[in-house]
Amino acid sequence: MEHQPAVIGLPRAMLYYRYGVLWRTFFTGLGLGVAASPPTDRDILAQGTALAIDEACLSLKIYLGHVAALVGQCDYILTPRVSNFGRHRNMCTRFESTPDLVRSVFRSTGQKFLSYNVDGELKQDEQDAFLSMGRELGCSAGAVKRAYRLAKKAELAHFKEQVQKQEQLSRREGMKVLIAAHSYVIEDPFMGKPVTRFLKAAGVIPLRADLTDREAALKRSLSLSPTCKWEISREILGGIQQRRDTVDGIILLSAFPCGPDAMVNELIARRVGDVPLLNLVLDSQSGTAGVETRLESFIDIIRFQEGKL
Question: How far apart (Å, rounded) are the C-alpha atoms in residues 151 and 170?
Answer without folding.
Answer: 29
